[in-house]
C-alpha cells in the first residue's frame, strides 16, 4: 500500500526548514527497511497576516510504499519524531493519506487548492479528515500545522502543484544537452515546455543556470523549459519560483 506523508510548521526562523525534517524522516523509514520513499515536494500555501508561518508558508510531502510495518507504526514513529525534532515554538502537523482511487480524494484536493488562496481553520481540517477517515494529528504548540499538512497532501494528490526539494547540478549555465540525455536520469520523467508540450528526444536544451529544479505536473517529475531567441532553455531560479 502507498501512503502520502505530509508535514507542516515544524521549523523556526534561522533554523533548518520543514524539508530537512521530512528528509530525515524519509531516511529513517528507508534505513529501517520499512518502505521506499519518493522525492519530496514543496507546496506553497496562502500567505496572509492572519496565518502564522515561519518563512514561506509551505508544506512538504512524499509518498511511501510500505513493506512490512503497519501504517499505524509509521504514524506513531512520525508523530514521535516531530515531537522530538521540531523546533521550539513551532506548531507541527502530520497527515497520512492512503493513495486509493475514488476514496473521496477530490474533496481533499479541493481543500488543498483552497488553502492556496484563503485562510482555513483547524476545525475545517479536522472535520474533513474525519469525514474521509484520513489521519491528521498535531504534535506541539497550537497544532496549526494540521491545516497545511492536510492541504499539502491534497495538493500532492492533485499531481499538478509544487516543486521538488533539492537542486540538480547537471552542467554549467549555457551548456546544452539533448532531451533524451536528460530523461535518462532516473529523477527526470519528462522535459516539457511551460505550456505543457513535450519535447522530442533529439531537441537540444540549454541550461539557464547551474542548478535545475523539477516541478510536479501530471503526477510526474518534470523539467520545464522555455523558448527564447537561442532555442529551448531550462528555467532560471527566479522563473521556477512561481511553481
Query: How many β-strand stretches?
Result: 13
| CA(first)-CA(last) distance | 29 Å
Beta-strand percentage?
Answer: 25-35%
Q: Can you tell me the overall shape? A: globular
Q: Which CATH first-tier class of the largest domain would you pick?
A: Alpha Beta
> Into how many domains do the coordinates divide?
2
The amount of helix comes to 25-40%
SSE order, as H and E?
Answer: EHEEEHEHHEHEEHEEEEEH
- Flag low-confidence runs: none
Per CATH, what is the topology of the largest domain?
A: Alpha-Beta Plaits
Mean pLDDT: 91
Radius of gyration, in angstroms, nearest whole number: 18 Å
Task: Describe the protein's architecture and organization.
This protein has 243 residues and is an alpha+beta fold. The protein folds into 2 domains: 2-163, 2-Layer Sandwich (Alpha-Beta Plaits); 167-240, no CATH class. The chain is 30% helix and 25% strand. It has 7 helices and 13 strands. The strands form 2 sheets. Strands 1, 2, 3, 4, 5, 6 and 7 form a 7-stranded antiparallel β-sheet that branches. Strands 8, 9, 10, 11, 12 and 13 form a 6-stranded mixed β-sheet that branches. A hairpin with a 2-residue loop joins strand 12 (220-228) and strand 13 (231-234). Helix 3 packs antiparallel against helix 4 and helix 3 crosses helix 5 (145-158). The longest helix is centred in the N-terminal third of the chain and has 15 residues, at 71-85. The model has no long low-confidence stretch (mean pLDDT 91).
